[in-house]
Specification:
The complex is a heterodimer of chains A (366) and B (307). Chain A has 366 residues and is an alpha/beta fold. Chain A has 15 helices and 8 strands. The chains are: A alpha/beta (366), B alpha/beta (307).
């Protein structure tokens, strides 16, 4: 029988659209793992204040593993992910000398890139996972990773491949050419003839030479790191596909969440990832009330919160049934009921973790 | 303190609708679009979303980027930032063959993809082109653009992008457009910022952070706050013993109490022009938009939209 927490698969990655509650489920699963006797680490991006309170950690856990005072046979550590610091550390690791490192870290283009470029945040989550899983692997035998709140959960999965693709692309070789002479002027690309001059004056006009200089400097300073960086991205990619890593896909309730969920599930499987299961979170309970009886319009129905809840319960049940028939039985499908309140302490997280583990085991049997 | 916008939204040229993913930005953009079009403004509602959820909300088939009519004086468009940049370049490099070779060159693609803020600027730049009648032949004349902003990151990154790009690129078509767009976005008489949230902890936290960042970086605040997905207030008459034996009533009361706590947190931090929207038993689409609009129009804060 499959279990959510298992010795053979020490890495558990929670994915899904933003706002579906995956951070709380990841934390609850980690509490459960610790209570099963495992040395557990949960890594998360953006926990709510209440979840941080529940775990008893604050900013000191940023980029570090902080122990949670939990009375359990195992242990629980929490780490808040910081993409920027992870990236900085990666630069430091692969830089050959301090001057080269400082040139990159101080580069204005790098500062923008590391903070804003789509995919970097996602890549840094897996990079950090790899860092902990390989280096500090002796300290933990269960790692639970929460992923960034992107609308497109796929960015996260494609990030290592995209980094490798970028490093191998012709665009990079072009960018690495010595475009500027020592005076900081664009070298004339005479062999391009008229077209070359046009491209240059166009780039000057459209993109601005200051920016080009910053980018050229960045790529050149970055060049010595490429080999290590590319190798690392390949290893990260391999880790994500290895049977040691399993994914838990978290979905919102209701029919409108189904297309996203199916899309993510297919992509995970197509890319060769191991999908442990699909969790439909915050499912409204069924109430034995006619959803709209006696009301003529949606507005009238909505005035009675009980009828509204009855409608939501019916909607979520339809959603679950549709998802079950569309997703097939290749992976367990389970639901977690809506709780009026999010967990605010460790016992509440433990209860949620137990419920999830129990439903997972039951769904695996079915 | 009264936090009403400098002018009603209906008198602005650009309305940027921001908020976390899943809070109902698209429904709010659609309802504002419908209301402004009815008020006589020629309105285009724009989204940046490959799935074109806004089209679904307005009952229009996906268009892949074309401007489509969604009603009298109402249009909808799905924006592609790269397409806007490419169009600007094609206009600048007038020889078609040269333009195509520039657009196909890897260095151009890498630079336009990597240049900080350029994509965000391009989205606002397209709004600017529509408003100034420079969006090409066949584009309708537009009085107001409502932008259903992308969910990723804080809305402030989007709004600050034109100034960032204008600082780096000082000449050429992109430099000139960035400067003009930065001016448009900073002008409270022409641009309004609407923030949509659910009455839940994380979205509310993000609204508070957004408001602080907007004040710090652009010297302005959101002009209108929309709290979406609210359960109806729990009636005192139900609150006595009878409710305890009714699990649906118990859940209703607790869910609404949590929402009240978050609304209280918003009210305690800032005074807002705030419109509250109910959670309605309707699927995404024009019927939901119409019902939400009826709910919004009955509220005092609607004067921030249309006086």
């Amino acid at each position: 029988m499959a279990a959510l927490v298992s010795t053979r698969e020490p890495l558990l990655v929670f994915v899904g659209s933003g706002g579906v509650g995956k951070t709380t489920l990841a934390a609850a699963t980690a509490v459960r793992a610790a209570r099963e006797g495992r040395r557990t680490l949960v890594m998360t991006f953006d926990p709510s204040l209440r979840l941080k309170d529940a775990l008893g950690v604050g900013e000191e856990a940023r980029d570090r593993e902080i122990p949670v005072p939990l009375e359990a046979p195992g242990t629980l550590h929490v780490s808040l992910l910081d993409a920027r610091r992870t990236f900085d550390r990666l630069i430091e690791r692969y830089s050959t000398d301090a001057a080269g490192r400082d040139r990159i870290l101080a580069n204005r283009f790098y500062q923008q890139l590391s903070g804003s470029l789509g995919g970097i945040l996602e890549y840094m989550a897996v990079e950090r996972l790899f860092e902990v899983a390989s280096g500090a692997g002796e300290r933990f035998d269960q790692i639970v990773l929460d992923t960034p709140p992107t609308r497109q959960a796929l960015d996260f999965l494609e990030a290592p491949a995209r980094i490798v693709g970028f490093l191998d692309s012709g665009a990079l070789r072009v960018a690495l050419k010595p475009w500027f002479d020592e005076a900081g002027h664009l070298k004339a690309t005479a062999r391009w003839g008229g077209l070359g001059r046009r491209v240059e004056s166009f780039l000057d006009e459209v993109v601005g030479l200051d920016l080009l200089r910053e980018m050229a400097e960045f790529f050149q300073a970055f060049a010595p790191l490429f080999a290590g960086f590319r190798e690392r991205a390949r290893e990260v990619e391999a880790l994500l596909i290895s049977p040691r890593t399993r994914f838990v896909l978290v979905s919102g309730p209701g029919e409108e969440a189904i297309p996203d969920t199916l899309f993510f599930a297919r992509r995970l499987l197509q890319a060769g990832h191991h999908l442990a299961g699909i969790v439909v979170n915050r499912v409204h309970p069924r109430f034995d009330l006619p959803a709209a009886e006696g009301f003529r319009t949606a507005e009238e129905t909505a005035l009675d919160g009980r009828r509204l809840l009855a409608w939501l319960g019916e909607r979520d049940e339809r959603g679950l049934a549709a998802l079950a028939s569309l997703a097939g039985s290749r992976q367990p499908l389970l639901s977690v009921p809506l709780a009026a309140d999010e967990p605010t302490d460790l016992p509440a997280l433990a209860a949620l973790g137990d419920l999830l583990a129990e439903r997972f085991a039951r769904a695996s049997l079915g | 303190m009264d936090n009403s916008p400098a002018r009603p939204l209906a008198a602005c040229q650009l309305i940027v609708v921001t908020g976390k993913g899943g809070v109902g930005k698209t429904a709010v953009s659609a309802l504002l679009g419908a209301a402004l079009a009815e008020a006589g403004r020629r309105t285009l509602v724009a989204e940046v979303d490959p799935r074109e959820n806004l089209h679904q909300m307005l009952g229009v088939a996906p268009s892949g980027g074309e401007i489509l009519r969604a009603g009298p004086r109402l249009w909808v468009q799905n924006l592609s930032p790269q397409r806007v940049i490419d169009e600007l370049v094609s206009e600048q490099v007038k020889i078609g063959l040269v333009a195509r070779r520039v657009l196909a060159s890897p260095i151009y693609q890498q630079f336009t993809a990597g240049a900080p803020g350029l994509k965000e600027m391009a989205v606002l730049g397209q709004a600017f082109r529509l408003l100034s009648g420079r969006a090409g032949t066949g584009a309708p004349a537009i009085d107001t653009v409502i932008l259903d902003a992308p969910a990723t990151g804080h809305g402030v990154a989007l709004l600050a992008a034109p100034a960032l790009v204008a600082e780096v690129i000082r000449s050429g078509p992109i430099g000139r457009m960035s400067a003009a767009v930065a001016e448009l976005v900073a002008d409270p008489l022409r641009t309004a910022v609407v923030t949509v949230t659910l009455a839940e902890e994380m979205p509310v936290q993000e609204v508070l952070e957004l408001a602080a960042a907007l004040e710090e970086k652009l010297g302005r605040r959101p002009d209108l706050l929309v709290a979406n997905g609210l359960f109806p207030p729990f009636p005192p008459a139900l609150a006595r013993d009878a409710a305890e034996s009714d699990p649906a009533a118990v859940l209703w009361r607790r869910l609404r109490a949590n929402q009240d706590r978050e609304l209280g947190r918003l009210a305690a931090t800032w005074s807002w022009s705030r419109i509250d929207l109910p959670l309605l038993p309707l699927a995404r689409g024009p019927e939901l938009v119409a019902a939400l609009r009826r709910a919004a129009e009955g509220q005092a804060a609607w004067k921030a939209v249309r006086s």
